[in-house]
């Protein structure tokens, strides 16, 4: 990783999707005592480029439907823009209190400054560490939005090294934590 940018992305390439990696990292950080907010995509168990069915709010667990049964006339993608807007609206109020923000993907809607765009912009404006994935089709738009962003390898070690370089150390948790460093 070059530098220690507060913003990091994993490139979605070759049809691979790294939502499970984002969700796993977020869960590990929460267990370590960090305030992690964001949205991760959950698929509908179908093949294709528009397989996302839901965005799950990391703080509340609420699932937001982002899938249309039929695409709009003249479109092939079944992504529900209003569902994306609702998920984004729920996230916006959480960003200021976060230690780190995880947003599922910078894609088609975000490249047009729609969808989850306001959450990306709010995290950036608040100076919060931000982790996402980026569709290869929208890498240029991402680079215009976040030119200083780090590109991470799609593995937990790379993600954790980025987190350690950009966020304060999580507080100690467990029975010995309250006793301080002299304990034990």
Q: Can you summarize this structure?
A:
The protein has helices spanning 19-31, 81-92, 108-111, 117-125, 139-145, 156-166; strands spanning 7-12, 36-43, 52-57, 63-65, 100-106, 130-135, 150-152.
Descriptive account of the structure:
- This protein has a domain at 7-42 and 92-167: Rossmann fold (3-Layer(aba) Sandwich).
- It has 6 helices and 7 strands; from the N terminus they run E-H-E-E-E-H-E-H-H-E-H-E-H.
- The protein has helices spanning 19-31, 81-92, 108-111, 117-125, 139-145, 156-166, and strands spanning 7-12, 36-43, 52-57, 63-65, 100-106, 130-135, 150-152.
- A 7-stranded mixed beta sheet has the order 4-3-2-5-6-1-7, sandwiched between helices.
- Strand 3 and strand 4 form a beta hairpin.
- The longest helix is centred in the N-terminal third of the chain and has 13 residues, at 19-31.
Q: Per CATH, what is the topology of the domain at 7-42 and 92-167?
A: Rossmann fold
Number of DSSP strands? 7
Q: What is the CATH architecture annotation of the domain at 7-42 and 92-167?
A: 3-Layer(aba) Sandwich
Q: Runs with pLDDT <50, length 5+? A: 177-184
The mean pLDDT is 84
Order of helices and strands: EHEEEHEHHEHEH
Report the structural category: alpha/beta
